[in-house]
Design brief:
The chain is built from three helices and twelve strands; from the N terminus they run H-H-E-E-E-E-E-E-E-E-E-E-E-E-H. It is an alpha+beta fold.
Length: 225
Amino acid sequence: MIAVKVTILCGFVIASVQCVISMAAEVPLERISRQTAAKQQGSAVVFFAAHQGMTRELLFNPIIFNQVLVNQGSGYDNTSGVFTAPVDGIYQFLFSAQLCRGDHNNFWAFMVNGVETMLCHAQMSGGDTSLNTCFFIENLKKGYRVWIKQLEGSCAWSSATSKTITFSGVLLVREGVSMLGGRYGSGYSCPPPSLSRRQESSSAQQPVSLSCVVISLLVILFLLD
């Protein structure tokens, strides 16, 4: 009888170890690596600023967006109108402007270190108006400077409440890791990676749960004997 109890006890110990190992294996390594990378990278970089008033038909180089609503990472300077990249990475920028009524041939440029890198154009006539929006994505080195230049003849209008002349940007990718979740260029497809991991985790829990049931039965038999 003692030999039987010893055998059951050994089985209980082995099953417990297997259960612990299986549960530990359920933690996705990719999630751990992303969390570690996020800690190493520090906080996010994102800003959103607005220009109050009109930019009527004059050269602005840069336009100064003095009403700052978001400036995480402290990359944007509202006294100069210039964003300075605090880290290497791929950034996305957006410029929007409510076009003035009348005949205006509007041109705005995304400037990177003093070079016109992308040009936005919108032509208006008569009493029409429209909101013009331009996107720009660039791989920047730390210290690169980005701003918006308005060419002569362009016209946009805004107020303190409308916020229709805006400049914003966000760090998308740093050191190959997406700041929005997941690894850049990993080739993920639908369903989203987070959903796939949940499904895989759910499937992996089945053998672990069965193992725990076996452990419970062994303990009951051992105690009732």
